[in-house]
Amino acid sequence: MSTRVWINGQLFDKYDAKISVYDHGLLYGDGVFEGIRIYAGKVFKHKEHIERLYESAKAIALTIPLTPEQMTTAVEDTVAANKKVEGYIRLIVTRGPGSLGLDPRKCEPNVIVIVDDISLYPKELYENGLEIITSSYTRNHPNAVNPRIKSLNYLNNILAKIEAIRANCLEAIMLNHKGEVAECTGDNLFIVKNGVLKTPPIDAGILEGITRNFVIDLAKGDGVPFAEATLTRHDIYVADELFLTGTAAEVIAVTKVDGRVIGSGKQGPITQRLRERFTAAVRQ
Ligand code: PMP
């Protein structure tokens, strides 16, 4: 069966799923999106993703032409139409087709739901940990495009990702305009130091990751001391453990940053425990 894509209430074969070249999503990256997982036939953290999508849309003054309930149903229907049990959902709302100028007033938003497979990091990296670098690109200043908005304008992250790939790495840490650690190009970041789990606060200029929030809940439930804390590159280099969280990545250890071995150079015990707890919880 071929993949069926939902566009504005209709299902199309993926090769016939098309939108206008005048769509401001294409012309200007004007739109918002979500990436969501399907585990054991269930949409994981569905409500949280729908809420974040509507908040992103509100922040860019984009009115989504569906209620959150209708959007939830559209996602469920597309998952069912594709008979997906394990997979990935890409939910997109573009500003829609308009004139060639920036003015969005004549645009009618397009709503798209794609249900497909996800390629995670290679399995061995979940055992051995990732090697990453610090990017030279500053994460968007919150007064420019706030990183809390999951917008279609991902060039900031893509430039850092290209830099990582050129350095033979798959992820990069992005610092904010103050030089503090913000997040990675598509993942949030946590350290463990002296038994305390730490992650940058939202006002470091990050996306408030749904996996991040879930991992914080798991850690608290396990009695792991936790704090949101301003982190610098120094804190990263001298951390006992370092790991990333994200919808696609889940929980993955980082064992090398900018050529420095982190902690023992292996996935640390708290990271391992949280990864196990995460893997078990998503299927409950
Ligand atoms: N930061 C950025 C920039 C991201 O793109 C993502 C992936 N959505 C994350 C963090 C992780 O967020 P989540 O756990 O909600 O997938």
Q: How would you describe this structure to a colleague?
A:
This protein has 284 residues and is an alpha+beta fold. It folds into two domains: 4-116, 2-Layer Sandwich (D-amino Acid Aminotransferase, Chain A, domain 1); 123-281, D-amino Acid Aminotransferase, subunit A, domain 2 (D-amino Acid Aminotransferase, Chain A, domain 2), CATH 3.20.10.10. The protein is 29% helix and 27% strand. It has eight helices and 15 strands. The protein has helices spanning 24-28, 46-59, 68-81, 123-128, 155-166, 210-221, 233-237, 269-281, and strands at 4-7, 10-13, 31-39, 42-43, 87-94, 110-116, 130-134, 172-175, 181-184, 188-193, 196-199, 226-228, 241-246, 250-257, 260-261. The strands form two sheets. Strands 7, 8, 9, 10, 11, 12, 13, 14 and 15 form a nine-stranded mixed sheet that branches. The chain has a six-stranded antiparallel sheet with strand order 2-1-6-5-3-4. Strand 1 and strand 2 form a beta hairpin. It is globular, with a radius of gyration of 19 Å. It starts with a strand and ends with a helix. The mean pLDDT is 97. Bound molecules: 4'-deoxy-4'-aminopyridoxal-5'-phosphate. Residues 35, 157, 183, 186-188, 207, 209-212, 245-247 line the site of 4'-deoxy-4'-aminopyridoxal-5'-phosphate.
